[in-house]
Amino acid sequence: KITEISQEKNRIEAILESMVDGVIAVNKESKVSLINSAARRIFNIEAERIKGKELISTLFSHRIDMYLERAFDKKETISREIKYKNPEQKIIHATFIPLLDEEEEKVNGGVIVLTDITELRKLETVRNDFVANVSHELRTPLTSMVGYLDTLLESDIEDPETRDRFLKIIKEETDRLSILIKDLLNLSQIESHSFDLKAENFNGVLNKVIKLLRKNAENKNIDFEINIAENLPLVYMVREQIKQVLINLIDNAIKYTPAGGKIKINIEKEGDKVYFSVKDNGMGIPQVDQERIFERFYRVDKARSRELGGTGIGLSIVRNIVKQHGSEIQVKSREGAGSEFYFYLKSAE
User: Which of 263, 244, 264, 245 minimizes the C-alpha distance to 254?
Assistant: First the structure.
């Protein structure tokens, strides 16, 4: 009998330890009698520090103790969403279950089931922000287009110069809307698909991008300084995607570098990786904005970005493509002293 009880106890403990949700069992005095590993991870606490102690003195969360006491008083299950910080803030869905005796008159203890929903809430926030931002970005050019079209249709504008100016503005807004929708579709495709990486020549892609953008640089009298290490190996990549990354990064460097400036491009091998960097001597990015520039629709200078034709999605596309290649995009910048963006690709040799 003792062996059977011991085996059953071990089985229950094994089940509790393997659970994704946190479980805390307490006695009628609210002292902890059992806590599984998931609950310890949620509260960032060791089992030895909590067993046999009161919840309020161990977890330092008055809400948990308050809701447990309420479940005991009402003799019914209570579910609540709780914010807890130790040291990072977490959002927890907690269910407080009182354990009643056979006659359901006295509370013998309780069980708290905890689900960490922090990431879920973050995703909901990102989704809501995305919908709000898309709505705003689409509404701005549409409002302008509708306004000018209404003016053309309702007013008898005989001056060809004024009419042509209105039509030119409508065309510019239409082009901007088209680019925005194209970027959104690209981003959606990149985020929802995985791609097969092939051994490719990085230099060949870079040369095509430089030829494509050189005219833009010449129009602003910007010099390219290109340093490529000798005997670079082939790298694993999707050619068209990396081409898109280089176009975004180098085109941004041209846009935000003043006339007569310089852009440095470096490619070098380090271990089993090939590093690419593009550095400008433009306006730079404030420290407070550097962590957010890869977010969708985030702009450091909204007015200037729109003036230069930016949609606010380019760097988000860059980040997602680079992630698909098993790498990460990083930035070094100082306000007024330019910016440097860099990432690596894995060598195929």
Answer: 263
Write phi, then psi, for 79 (nearest 5 degrees).
-120, 135
pLDDT tens per residue across span 178-222: 877 877 777 777 766 667 788 888 888 888 888 888 888 888 888
The three-point CA angle 129-133-138 to 5° equals: 155
Q: What is the DSSP string of 330-344?
A: EEEE-TTS-EEEEEE
Instruction: Give SS3 for 93.
Output: strand
Alpha-helical (H) ranges within the chain are: 2-18, 37-43, 55-59, 62-74, 118-154, 160-192, 202-219, 239-255, 302-307, 314-324
Q: 336: left (phi > 0), else alpha (psi -120 to 50), else beta?
A: left
How far is residue 202's CA from residue 244's CA, in Å, rounded to a whole number?
Answer: 13
Q: In what order do the strands lie in the sheet with 22-27?
A: 32-35, 22-27, 107-116, 89-100, 78-85
3-state secondary structure of 15: helix
Contact criterion met (CB below 8 Å) for 328 and 322: yes
Q: How far is CA 13 from CA 8, 20, 37, 181, in A?
A: 9, 14, 10, 53
Angle separating helix axes 239-255 and 314-324, nearest 10 degrees: 140
List pLDDT tens digits, range 107-135: 888 999 999 998 888 888 777 766 776 77
Helix axes 160-192, 314-324, angle to 10 degrees: 20
The single-letter code of the amino acid at 18 is: S
DSSP 8-class letter at 31: B
